[in-house]
Amino acid sequence: MLVQLLALPRNLKRVVAATVDVLGIMLALWFAVSVDARVFYLPRNWNDVAFAFVLSVASVFLFYKLGLYRSVTRYIGSKAFRAVVFGMLASSSALVLFSALMDARVNLNVVVIYSLSAFIFIAASRFGARSVFRQVQSRPKDNVIIYGAGEAGRQLAHALIHGREYHAVAFVDDDETLQGAMIQNLSVFPVSKIGELTHKLDVKRILLAFPSASRSTRRNALEMLSHLPVTVQTIPGMADIIAGDAKIDELREVNIEDLLGRDAVAPQMDLLTQNVRGKAVMVTGAGGSIGSELCRQVAAQKPKALILYEWSEPSLYYIHEELTQTYPDVAIFPFVGSVQDEINLKSVMNSHRIDTIYHAAAYKHVPMVEMNIIQAARNNVLGTLYTAQAAIDAGVEKFVLVSTDKAVRPTNVMGATKRLAELILQGLAKTTHKTAFCMVRFGNVLGSSGSVVPKFREQIKKGGPITLTHKDITRYFMIIPEAAQLVIQAGAMGDQGDVFVLDMGEPIKIYDLAKQMIRLSGLTVKDEQNPHGDIEIKITGLRPGEKLYEELIIGNTDRLTPHPRIRRASEHSLAWTEVESLLNDVIACCAEMDGQRLRDILKDAPLDYTPDSRCVDLHYPVQITKKIKHSLSQPQQPQ
């Protein structure tokens, strides 16, 4: 309760103090009347209550004019004491004046007793509150080191002086010109001393204060700090601080994405705007992780119209609300619809005369897709087919498929269906029409639904264990805004059937990521070497269709493009007649709900698909039962 009072805005604290004074003065008056009459007095009618209330409000007004409410309670002193004395003299005079005007017959004894009791109450409330506030503030604070002695670090140190949780004991900084200096009465040490300082000064928390640093600088700092037994927090980004959206001392959890991402490359604006500015742009899967970011990037480049196409009505609502508020001048049209609905797709594309399509709609979670093979094929394969055919019919200029690294030598249904979607577009690219098809292939994006980072963070908050399928599993990672920008830029370079792959940087070992997240939370890993640690990392085994590592290119050759992080792959494709024959088999399997046969078709197709030996499709047992019943119903051949 006291902490909440301390956190109230200054003006609200004044209102609280004035309210307490009003009640105190009313009680002091009734107390004075009771003592004078030698009986316990209670107001007998509303006139008595009104008299006391008017007196108390008038007294508070006099206190305000005398400056009593300008004093900060925790620093109250002799000046405030004098204000209380003069205030009570004025209040007593008001009592005499009001009693004469209202014929209240208040005698001198009542005035004296009222003055003394009200004075004691007002003074005691002020000095008592000061004592309590100081006691709250004098509670032990956690020692912290501020990493970064620049302007942000200095502002943070100043803010912590008046805070109630942390006590800054030192700065550390890489800048040799600052090392050895005294800033805010704190010494600046080299970063190399941070381990020694942590132990010597009993530091349990390190605060990062370099909001404008590059991603690589933050990553290097976090990798070093992850080996120390401390919790790491950071100040908000400089943009939020400048905009007034955050205060310098509003400490936040470390953005674990800084451990994984790279320094962003500025987009090439000619590529970013080529298929967007002044165009009618459609994004399928507009409510998903990648789809919604594509919408944001497109809207920022002033398209003629932005068409959001999404099956999930809640997801569509949220992205539409966000975009209409952020980009009120952009014409945005939200359509609820499935990419399996050919009629709806054609209607939308023709009515809005779409120029560019970014096809991000897909089922992408490997375990879910393995259990729902038929629906995955309908959405990822047939949905791509129907969307592409509708684009051809509507005369769309550019069609960009958002693909995945799991399409390269796939071991799961999700990857196999995405590879077949690529072959569909490559096959259509060999036919005669206006639409240019291309596809962009990349790995995992940070912060997407199902991403390991939020999953691990939640498991750490619950006390563990962190669950991981294999100790040696690795993945490529990229931040969502960078991925979306690169998709748009790659699409601008795409010609008929081009496959682009994004430079994802170095693969990340997920086991090492889990350990770093545990340590940066100020906790320890529980394992054989440390059986009394805080968080265990539990290995559960690879799931059906899951790879230890991912690839981005099927062949061994790829070519440079004008963009340093986009490469053009040289890969084998099929003629449209071959693709069409394969699609007829897929459509037949979907009609019969035969997931096992569909897996076999995908395996035999030129996809390099190596399925897991375990078929976990939820319809598979039903198909087995149907086949057994069919076999039993056949007439037996004579022996």
Automatic annotation (TrEMBL):
Name of this chain's protein: Nucleoside-diphosphate sugar epimerase
Family: Belongs to the polysaccharide synthase family.
Database matches in SUPFAM superfamilies: NAD(P)-binding Rossmann-fold domains (SSF51735)
InterPro entries tied to this protein: NAD(P)-bd_dom_sf (IPR036291), Polysac_CapD-like (IPR003869), Polysaccharide_Synthase-Rel (IPR051203)
Organism, as annotated: Idiomarina baltica
Keyword Repressor: no
Domain of life: Bacteria
Domain Polysaccharide biosynthesis protein CapD-like: 281-569
Keywords of this entry: Membrane, Transmembrane, Transmembrane helix
Residues that span the membrane, as ranges: 12-33, 49-68, 80-102, 108-129
Pfam families: CoA_binding_3, Polysacc_synt_2
